[in-house]
Amino acid sequence: MRRRALLALPLGLATPALAQGMPRLVVAGGGIAEIVCALGARGAIVGADSTSLFPTDLRQLPQIGYLRALSAEGVLSLQPGLLLLAHEAGPPPAIAQLRAAGVNIIRAPRIESPETLMQAVTVVAEALSREARGQALNAALAEDFAALAASLPRPATPPSALFLLAAGSGAPMASGRGTSAEAMLRLAGARSAIQSYEGYRAVTAEAALAAAPDWVVAPSHTVDASGGVASFLAQPQLSLLPAARAGRLVTFDSLYMLGFGPRTAHAARDLAVALHARPDLAALPDRPWLRGAA
Predict the structure, then answer these.
(1) Record keywords: Glycoprotein included (predicted)?
(2) How many domains is the chain built from?
(3) What residues contact 96, with CB distance under 8 A and at least 6 apart?
(4) Residue numbers of the domain that contains 226
């Protein structure tokens, strides 16, 4: 699936002037980092985790490790005035060590819906004393999700998708119920082909065939790492699927599709275009936070 090009300078690339008077921010969580930038506080961020990849200049900041395996020492070395955490950030011992060291920590709620996304925006905006910007951002997000819902096709049977994530060199992990992948499919007017379990599990050929998905969905980096589309679909767990034989594979940037930040409604719209085979689906309003450095 082709996404819209992300060009030019986003609203969130704040100048040093915008960051004056703000605490030194360290952020863990790609979606939370996007919220900070959309609130105009990019200039205050002095460090981020490895999932904070957009806007792309965040990749040049000092790194504090992976979201679920943060380095307490790395955070402390940046002398943060505030550490903003996604709900999933950890591990707990590292967070406890940082609290004991006196680091001011605010953890956002779990984001799995438009409502919880807007709750997270409110939490971050209040932490940054940018309540008015937070209200404006939430108003725009509410408009985007309403436009998305109004534009979606309503077939009698929604398209189903086998949503896969990488698992090193092992079998791909397939989403079941209660995941961010299932939430994104639901926003796109589709459904997860697997409903028999919660979370992610290694997929087998038998389970994939029983799920009988209309589409296979996977991150672009996972498909690339397997050697490309043909190699990915030729895996023994997938090769017998009618969807795989027909080449019905949707690929995406993982942060764009699963980050649950301000771009989520647009990502769901792009996913819906592919899964419903509707290139004529109405575009959502253009927003400054959709555009990042090339």
Answers:
(1) no
(2) 2
(3) none
(4) 160-277
Residue 128 is assigned to a structural domain of this protein: yes
Residue 127 forms part of a structural domain: yes
Q: What is the chain's mean pLDDT, rounded? A: 91
On whether the CB atoms of residues 3 and 252 are closer than 8 A, the answer is: yes
Residue 9 sits at the vertex; the CA angle it makes with 4 and 14, to the nearest 5 degrees, is 135
Flag residues of the chain having pLDDT under 70.
1-20, 167-169, 292-294
Q: Rounded distance, CA 56 to CA 74, Å? A: 21
Judge whether 264 lies within some domain.
Answer: yes
Q: Check if the beta carbon of residue 94 is closer than 8 Å to that of residue 70.
A: yes
Which residue type sits at 94? Answer: A
Q: Which single residue is written with the structure tokens 């060590």? A: 97
Report the distance separating Cα 258 and Cα 34, nearest Å: 12
Distances in whole angstroms, Cα of residue 22 to Cα of each of 8, 46, 131, 281, 292: 25, 12, 14, 41, 23
Within a domain: residue 283?
A: no
d(CA 110, CA 89): 10
Quick: pLDDT tens for 98-132.
999 999 999 999 999 999 999 999 999 999 999 99
Contacts of 260 (CB under 8 A, 6+ apart): 31, 111, 112, 117, 180, 183
Which residue carries 């028999």 as its tokens?
Answer: 196
